[in-house]
Design brief:
The chain has 2 domains: 95 residues, no CATH class; 56 residues, no CATH class. 19% of the residues lie in helices and 38% in strands. It has a 6-stranded mixed beta sheet with strand order 1-2-3-5-4-6. Strand 2 and strand 3 form a beta hairpin.
């Protein structure tokens, strides 16, 4: 299930694992290098998901945050274990800065005027920092963080 909440795009992978994209406008309200701001951000996300979509967090979670000042951040939340009390939550957070984000689309004509376009598995990819005004084309694709593979080595460069 995928849904948008304010400036967040939430993908529920199963009842225990989530991928959350936070756009740069929302993320600019927080300094994720600051432990207190990071804690406030996680609390806000958990409460928002609980209130709006009845997502219940309990147990121990591994949270990996891949951040880019220009493009926002991706949070990968994976439940590791349960705790004794259903009310207990523990987040083990790792933050990675200055990560590359890609705009992904099936429609080549959306990105044809740009350079450094890659094709992989039926989609066209371009680094977000190479797009001057991504808000004009965001509706024709999505922003992705490719944490599991290197697009330069497996994708085909179109132009």
């Amino acid at each position: 299930m995928i849904f948008w909440v304010n400036y967040l795009k939430v993908s529920v992978l199963n009842n225990e694992d989530f991928e959350i994209y936070i756009n740069e406008i929302y993320l600019n309200n927080y300094d994720i290098k600051n432990e207190n701001d990071l804690s406030k951000l996680m609390k806000k996300i958990v409460l928002l998901l609980k209130r709006r979509y009845e997502v219940i967090f309990s147990g121990i979670y591994n949270v990996q945050i891949y951040a880019s000042k220009l493009n926002g951040a991706f949070l990968f939340i994976k439940r590791l274990d349960s705790l004794f009390s259903i009310r207990d939550i523990d987040f083990k957070i790792s933050v990675f800065f200055d990560c590359d984000f890609y705009f992904k689309t099936k429609d080549f004509f959306v990105v044809e005027d740009l350079s450094n376009i890659f094709y992989y598995n039926g989609f066209y990819y371009i680094k977000c920092n190479l797009i001057k005004n991504i808000s004009k084309i965001i509706e024709f694709g999505s922003v992705e963080y490719l944490k599991d593979f290197d697009l330069n080595s497996i994708g085909t460069r179109i132009k």
